[in-house]
Design a protein that fits this description.
The complex is a heterodimer of chains A (about 160) and B (about 180). Chain A is α/β, with parallel strands linked by helices and about 160 residues long. Chain A contains five helices and five strands. Chain B has one domain: Beta Polymerase, domain 2, CATH 3.30.460. In chain B, β1 and β2 form a beta hairpin. The chains are: A alpha/beta (about 160), B alpha+beta (about 180).
Chain lengths: ~160, ~180
């Protein structure tokens, strides 16, 4: 859980497990790779803008994969792009997370049958933590996807490997 | 401003047999069928003749007519033998305010069309796309490479009617 519930009634000491503290710090500043692919990227940008304000969750677009924590695959992954996405993902430092946003990135979406150029789901090249359904998903849906990811980070253990 | 009939007679007088026919019985605008290997000279004439002045190539598109013989290959997939691939040119004169549609038909087994990049520079990428999607070879094109598909794509031309998607591309499974 959070660390605020472990506060002493008086004084300014907080007791928490280092694990909780570290997880809380990590989940509160998930920097994302500044990267967008298609119409989902427009919704992602709307999520970043003032009305939905991704920044209140600590999500900042970082224009370098080497200093990012998450990558949001926001749009259609073509075969040509898939090799580049894999490379971006491999350039990110651990621990790293992937949000697959929208039908195209989840499973190919409307291109599932006749999309000769489309990879039918980004999970064929990189491991995905959270799938956000929608075509495209509304900013609220992406925010919920992010909160699901935060939930995952919150329950991670430094010694025990998460599933 | 000239009608398609007037433009056809001007071209017929100049190029003779290279201008094959004017088709106006279709429910689209009338179009002129021309010879695929002469279309480069015709295009420059269309651009420069003071009565025509087609300074703008609005669009260039490839078409698979799929009018050949449908046969099964050794894997049981239906493929098309023979028939035509076509290229359509939509032209406009911004000075004289008239438009024209040109068509060339080429052999599906050896699809070769002369480039019109000499007349209109914008044809460069249009022709690369027609090459990428249909495999139409544009003779004397300055830079005939794939434009949309990966440069190392070896599995054919995806908008042909008998195209078969590959099972894998660079280790990634392609079908759903």
């Amino acid at each position: 859980m959070g660390i605020l519930d472990k506060e002493f009634s008086e004084g300014n000491i907080v007791i928490a497990k280092t694990e909780d503290l570290f997880n809380w710090a990590r989940l509160s500043s998930l920097w994302q790779v500044g990267f967008g692919l298609a119409c989902c990227a427009i919704e992602m940008m709307a999520t970043s803008a003032s009305h939905y304000d991704f920044d209140r969750f600590g999500v900042i677009p970082r224009p370098s994969p080497r200093q990012s924590d998450i990558i949001i695959i926001s749009g259609t992954v073509t075969l040509k792009m898939a090799t580049r996405i894999k490379r971006l993902y491999e350039q990110m430092p651990d621990p790293k997370y992937v949000i697959s946003m929208g039908s195209c990135a989840n499973c190919g979406g409307p291109y599932w049958e006749h999309g000769y150029h489309v990879l039918k789901g980004v999970d064929r090249v990189i491991p995905v933590d959270v799938y956000v359904p929608g075509c495209p998903p509304r900013p609220e849906a992406l925010l919920e996807g992010l909160m699901k990811l935060q939930e995952k980070v919150r329950n991670e253990s430094m010694v025990k490997k998460s599933a | 401003m000239k009608t398609a009939e007037e433009i056809f007679s001007i071209l017929k007088e100049k190029f003779g047999d290279s201008i094959i026919e004017l088709k106006s019985d279709k429910p689209v605008e009338p179009f002129i069928l021309t010879a695929p290997l002469e279309v480069d000279k015709i295009s420059i004439y269309l651009r420069d003749n003071s009565e025509l002045l087609f300074d703008s190539l609005m669009n260039l598109s490839g078409v698979d007519d799929a009018n050949g013989e449908k046969v099964k290959d050794e894997n049981g997939n239906e493929i098309i033998k023979g028939g035509n691939l076509s290229v359509w040119y939509h032209l406009e004169s911004t000075k004289l305010k008239h438009k024209l549609t040109l068509k060339v038909s080429t052999d599906r087994e050896k699809p070769e069309v002369a480039t019109v990049t000499e007349a209109w520079k914008c044809a460069d990428w249009h022709e690369r796309e027609a090459y990428d999607m249909y495999g139409i070879i544009f003779l004397n094109h300055p830079d005939l490479r794939r434009i949309l598909m990966p440069y190392d794509w070896e599995h054919g031309y995806p908008l042909r009617k008998d195209y078969q998607n590959p099972e894998f591309y660079q280790g990634m499974k392609v079908p759903y």
